[in-house]
Design a protein that fits this description.
alpha+beta; 7-stranded antiparallel beta sheet; disordered N terminus; disordered C terminus
Length: 346
């Protein structure tokens, strides 16, 4: 298969997944179609703090196009979780779980537990000190994800326009001493989940794994599964998809790297994706190149966020005060969601 046909196959698959009512964990997919953006995870980031190399920063975002398409608050019935595996078995050894009260005048009270024990409490919009010298904050920020998704869905006719420019998200930002996460070594795996009533709603490790590599009929199953089961349960599906996008050799090599779906990260290493994920990492370009086994980098012309990131906590760019009208993509998804109906995944 030629390089361009391989990439076009990915584009076609994302068109199908984006404009479906099937739930998925990644950005700009089911959150807009289901009306459930406050518990549908957009992105996960894990990186060494640029202001303190002894600390690790964990960021989870929800509510795509916050304040325009979805809301800005967190669901009071949902637990938002960072899961960390520090012994290589793809099972959580450390979990930070945050829950919220209903909003009052736009502010929510939050409580964070670490492995089930009290860890931090405070309000959205404030910096909250955590044990050991860490910091937690929750609020609305500029969406850190950057990508020409409209051009991607138009057969790779990239214009270099950032589909997410001007958009906001709701984010949980937790910076902790890396010693809180590490096991015998500094190598950890990170993923995020949302859970309601004991039922896992969504999860994400690396970006776009569910969106691109899991068949549409199994997306619900993948969202509700545990990373430790990924290779045995979904390995054949992922390998078949990558084979169709490139070749069998590339698929056999990549499948055990991409599964289990955890964001592997060496907390002592400041480099980015595939070592964790920094805010400025151009992850879609990297994944396009890997999945197609391209000998040259593939890019969409969007190489950075619309606003600069900060080197100090909370690292995200501030929210847009005046949010532009939703992009053509957002309007198209909204139109589709009207036709298929708004469904909550409960």
């Amino acid at each position: 298969m030629s390089q361009r046909k391989s990439v076009l196959a990915i584009a076609a698959s994302l068109v199908l997944f984006t404009f479906s009512a099937v739930q998925a964990a990644d950005h700009l997919d089911a959150p807009l179609l289901s009306g459930n953006g406050d518990s549908d995870i957009n992105d996960l980031y894990a990186f060494q703090s640029p202001s303190n190399p002894d600390n690790t920063v964990l960021i989870m975002t929800v509510n795509p196009f916050a304040g325009v398409v979805s809301g800005e608050s967190f669901d009071e019935n949902v637990s938002y979780n960072f899961a960390i595996d520090n012994d290589g078995d793809a099972l959580a050894d450390v979990t930070y779980s945050t829950t919220f009260t209903p909003p009052t005048a736009g502010v929510q009270t939050l409580t964070t537990l670490r492995n089930g024990s009290a860890y931090a409490t405070g309000s959205t919009g404030a910096n909250i000190a955590t044990p050991g010298g860490g910091t937690l904050t929750v609020g609305v920020y500029d969406d850190p994800f950057f990508f020409d998704l409209v051009g991607f869905n138009d057969g790779l006719n990239f214009t270099g326009d950032d589909t997410l420019a001007g958009a906001n998200v709701s984010a949980i930002v937790l910076e902790v001493p890396s010693t809180e996460l590490n096991g015998a070594t500094s190598n950890i795996g990170v993923w995020a989940t949302t859970v309601e009533g004991g039922n896992q709603i969504d999860r994400i490790g690396r970006p776009a794994i569910n969106t691109v590599l899991i068949p549409s009929a199994r997306k619900d199953e993948f969202n509700q599964a545990q990373p430790s089961d990924d290779l045995s349960t979904f390995g054949a599906d992922v390998e078949a998809t990558i084979t169709a996008l490139s070749d069998a050799t590339n698929a056999a090599a990549l499948t055990p790297i991409l599964l289990p779906d955890v964001l592997t990260f060496d907390t002592a290493n400041a480099s980015g994706f595939l070592n964790g994920r920094k805010l400025a990492d151009d992850v879609i370009d990297a994944e396009l190149t890997l999945l197609t086994a391209s000998s040259t980098p593939i890019g969409d012309g969007v190489d950075s966020n619309d606003l600069p990131f900060s080197d100090t906590f909370p690292y995200l760019a501030p929210a847009h005060v005046i949010i532009p009208e939703p992009s053509t993509l957002a309007l198209a998804i909204l139109g589709m969601s009207t036709m298929v109906g708004r469904k909550r995944r409960r």
